[in-house]
Write the structure tokens for this entry.
Amino acid sequence: MITVTGLAFTYPDGTRALDGIGFHIMEGGSVGIVGSNGAGKSTLVNHLNGWFKPQEGSVVVNGITSGRTNEEKIRKLVGLVFQNADDQLFTARVWDDVMFGPRNLGMDEQESCEEAGRLLRDFGLWELRDKPPAHLSQGQKHFAALAAVLIMKPSVLVMDEPTADLDPRNRRKLIGLVNRLPVTRVTVSHDLDFIWETCTTVVVMNAGRAVASGPAHELLSDRELLERNGLELPLRLQGA
Ligand SMILES: Nc1ncnc2c1ncn2[C@@H]1O[C@H](COP(=O)(O)OP(=O)(O)OP(=O)(O)O)[C@@H](O)[C@H]1O
Ligand SMILES: [Mg+2]
């Protein structure tokens, strides 16, 4: 479903955030991307839906090569929930943010309204639908951003730090929800217990490169590998 080859990216100030990273994600796969602060995870996932364009190397999603011409096709296929929900929510009401994508693409209004209502109720946001997104709590913003992505029924769901703002009960709810979604998933998280519960494969990043990839439970149990890359064992394995 996704093939990243030799992807490199340098920010305008000269920071080389990606340095030739490559990996494959099979259709229906669930991949966790882990790495310490600044490893390049967000820069990487911002390439998966065409938001960032490859400077070197390539990103191919379902046979479509990311670039200036295929932007819309890739955006339809890949839903990206940003690390910072403020980057994603931009209208005056939560409801309008969730409905923005369907309206923009001319999807059936009635069906989209029903789906928006279902998602907002599921995420505990129904009562808040007329509020400005800026007035939501961080966790509420995250669920609003997720609803705005899921309503588009993407084939690939990419989430960047989905649990950072969630309380334990909502974190548990998200685990159940994503595990039931019949889509290919890419999850960036420092919450290695969340990755343990929701991903079958893991890619470990360090300094803009993929330094290891393989079965999630195997890599997440490898203390030496994790520590070498600035990470720690998931809490469940720390003997707590
Ligand atoms: N807009 C930018 N301009 C210049 N450098 C940037 C910019 N955004 C990120 N960087 C740099 O690129 C590198 C990778 O950043 P990125 O945000 O991809 O890391 P990350 O792995 O997502 O980190 P975190 O776990 O803290 O979210 C870092 O060194 C960062 O300082
Ligand atoms: Mg990040």
